[in-house]
Amino acid sequence: MMKRTDLSAESAASKLEQVKNEIAKAFIGQKKLVEHALITMIAGGHLLVEGVPGLGKTLLVRALAKTIEGESKRIQFTPDLMPSDITGNIMLDPGTGKFITRKGPVFANLLVADEINRAPAKTQAALFEAMQEFQVSLDGESHPLPSPFMVLATQNPFEHEGTYPLPDAQKDRFLMKMTASYPAAEEEKMMVAKILNGDTGAQLSISGVETVIDTDVFTEIKELAASLRVDPLVIDYAVRMTAATRETAAVETGAGPRGSLSLIRCARARALLCGRDFVLPDDVKALACEVLAHRLTLSAESELEGLNEKRIIENLLQKIEAPKGISGNE
User: Fold this and answer.
1) Which string of DSSP letters, residue by residue, matches 90-147?
2) Which residues does 148 contact at the CB level (< 8 Å), separation at least 6?
């Protein structure tokens, strides 16, 4: 166990840079996805990733878990998946005749919920309860989840048969949603060369990834991010951005107050990742699409006009004036 120390914003950013460098040894490219996963975890939330299979999302989680000396697990969501397959259950031990608790795969620091929209609503709800409460109830007894805890859920944008779309209230539980794109040509060539170097490439390895901090230190980083000061003008900017989604003609239902809260939570995590102990309006701008877009429900007219949620947030960012003169000085 590594010793806990009092962290400054600069030292926390240095440790997080080490984490990113170690992840890059196994997970080539996709820097935005790595950064957003870290921001989500620092902010104590969960990330929804939309993208085709085979882009390395599970590899990213495994590498990230190893860098912080944490545990990662993966659940493949299917139509016949039961809630107990996620949370665990109480079962009778034939040897002792006593009931024992069998904890499910949700008891990990990082959980990949693969193709989450392939499971029915009841099974999805079991995971969302864990995400919201950071605990699981088994036979009336509450079991806390490990700290830190993050769910990286994936859904395939091109396959709709046999899926159960996430209700808006459940999508709102995700701190951010982003799209994982294909790697650049040079990155893909590096990836293929690295994976096939003396190996069949059938299993992606994280053997070269080193542990640089432990889960206690990462929890300390989370606490530091939560303590960063936020200028009232930046809070006002985040609230105006969120409120504007409710007043846009192209939007049937805008983002609720959780959108404003999520913007500030993510902005604080991004500020710390940049080595600052204060939040800038640019932190809000940089994450507005990923934080707010999935919380919108578009009107039928806007969809016919070819508008999408991301375009609407981008338009609002151009229209809404950001505060100026924000700095770390009191």
Assistant:
1) EEEETTTTEEEEEE-TTSSSEEEEETGGGS-HHHHHHHHHHHHHSEEEETTEEEEPPS
2) 41, 44, 68, 70, 109, 215, 218, 219, 222
Q: Are 43 and 265 in contact (CB under 8 A)?
A: yes
pLDDT at 95: 79
164, 127 Cβ separation under 8 angstroms = no
Q: Which of 74, 86, 77, 75 is nearest to 129 (CA)?
A: 86
Alpha-carbon Rg for the chain, nearest whole angstrom, is: 21
**CA pair distance 185, 210, nearest whole angstrom:** 27
Q: Residue 3 has what pLDDT?
A: 43
Q: Could you tell me the pTM of the whole model?
A: 0.90
Closest CA to 36 of 288, 325, 210: 288
Q: Alpha helix locations (H) across 135-227? A: 168-171, 185-195, 215-226
Q: Are 234 and 54 in contact (CB under 8 A)?
A: no
Mean pLDDT, each 10-residue run in order, the chain (330 residues)? 66 96 88 94 94 78 94 92 90 78 92 88 84 87 92 77 72 90 77 66 72 95 94 96 92 92 97 95 96 90 79 94 77
CA distance to 51, 77, 123, 155, per residue, from 120 (Å): 20, 9, 6, 14
Please answer whether residues 64 and 93 qualify as being in contact, where contact means their C-beta atoms are separated by less than 8 angstroms: no
Q: Which two tokens stand for residue 45?
A: 């939330």
Beta pairing class for 135-138 and 110-114:
unpaired
- The Cα 256–Cα 246 span in angstroms is 8
First to last CA, the chain: 37
187: its two tokens? 């990155």
Using CA atoms, how far apart are residues 62 and 71, in angstroms rounded to an integer?
8
Contact call for residues 254 and 245 (beta carbons, < 8 A): yes
Q: Give Cα 14 to chain centroid, integer Å.
A: 21
- The pLDDT of residue 162 is 64
